[in-house]
Amino acid sequence: MPLRILAPDDPALQAYRQRLNDPSFVDVSLDIIPFATYREKLDAALAAEQSTHEVVFVPGHLWIPELAANGKLQQLDTLDADWDTYTADTIVPSVNDEAYYDGNRYMLPLFTDGHILLYDPEKVSITDDTVDVRDLRQIAQNAQISEGQHVLALKAHASEIFLDWLPYLYAEGGHILDDIQQPAFNTDAGRRALENYIALAAFTPTDTHMYDNDAIATALRRGDVGMAVTWGGQAAPIFLAEGSVAPNRYKVAAITTPWNATWGAAIPTNLPKDRQQAALDMLLRLNTVELDTLVITLAGSPVRQSSYSDQNIQHYPWLKAQQQMLTTARLLPKHPQMGHMLGVLYTQVYQAFRGQKTAAEALAQAEADILK
After folding, report:
1. Are residues 239 and 124 in the same domain?
2. Helix (H) or strand (E) run with residue 252 in it
3. Confidence check: pLDDT of 147 > 90
4. Shared domain check, 138 and 57
5. 10 shares a domain with 27
């Protein structure tokens, strides 16, 4: 019986597509869904009497707590598996942590999406390998930009803005939740962080509130901006795309307070045990060291430590910053209601950025909505 994989439209999934061309995976199909509708398709599969797909993709610490707490994802360690062949111990430790919730493994990681900074050294003065996002305003003020260009682009689309802002909150010492899992962002640190982020709009295109992942990648491939924070999982499409100016234009730096999410393959609980076992057997054959090497050139954000060899770091200009990001990135709390909280925060941060509310008003409203 064929095995079906449900996954979002991300460059890293092309690594799966290429590997599935091997005759040994003839019975495996891959259904790629646009990000905008992916969660809807995923929820439908997990709510059905029997899932339409034997494998589904999830972003580790973002969705696994909710889905696992609701009994939607299978604990992989309850199935038979040759974990020694999979070589789980070669997965980057921070990435491996995202595969677990409440001590149980739910995911096999494929790629990461964490913050890195691309910058044009001819236009902006950055001398360190790591940049504090609180310094970006001063860097932008001192930039040498030609007429018609912009110093900076922010990924401030309504569907992206919260995660784009998160490093600024971390840089001010802020948190999303406190030690007893209550909202902790409506503080002086949170307000400073949001005000600092909003102030950067003065150096961006006027429509930066419409910039999503694709818009940022396009701006960097064309060299339209002096600098931009983007995902490490976009680095390969930016630097390796035909016609891209990025290899000759941009250098890459880490930021001091990045966030990261790891996407990987999970197995629904609403499947017969034999289908779950067949799915895991297939995933263990698929998620190899060789697959991780493919992820470098297709997305840019591999999950195994061997992919961050000195040779690869010298060859791919973003991998050093990507590796540093994985060692310093902070995750959001693993909370079953985190998805709901993020929905509230996206809305309020976007309204503040668009001038519909002050930073203080937006964060206070977000706190009140979450506490309800």
Report:
1. yes
2. strand 251-255
3. no
4. no
5. yes
217 vs 233: CA distance, rounded Å: 11
Whether 336 maps to a domain, the answer reads no
Same domain assignment for residues 254 and 196: yes
Alpha carbon 66 to chain centroid, angstroms: 18
123, 250: one domain? yes
Residue pair 329/259 in contact (Cβ under 8 Å)? The answer is yes
pLDDT score of 148: 72
Q: Is the pLDDT of residue 366 over 90?
A: yes
8 A C-beta contact, residue 63 and residue 339: yes
- Label residue 84 by pLDDT band (50, 70, 90): confident
Q: Is the distance from CB of 4 to CB of 29 less than 8 angstroms? A: yes
| Domain that includes residue 108, residue range | 3-112+260-328
Between 342 and 83, residue with greater pLDDT: 342
Write the pLDDT tens digit of every residue in 281-299.
999 999 999 999 999 999 9
CA distance linking residue 148 with residue 362, whole number of Å: 33
Nearest alpha carbon to residue 12 among 286, 210, 323, 315: 286
User: How many domains are contained in the chain?
Assistant: 2
